[in-house]
Fold this protein.
Amino acid sequence: MVTIISRASWGARAPRSRSTVAWSRRTGFTVHYSAGPTSQTARQIQNFHMDSNGWADVGYNFLV
């Protein structure tokens, strides 16, 4: 069984911008994993992506 933890549960920041694609137009998804330390949190990954890379949000569809 896979448990999906919501953004609210891990304390996600609001994205700087957002674009959406209708479910009917989606053809797949990609699961990424971090090569960082196992102590790294989802919020730390999001902070790095937004603050260091200048991205609008965390760069992953799912974090494992």
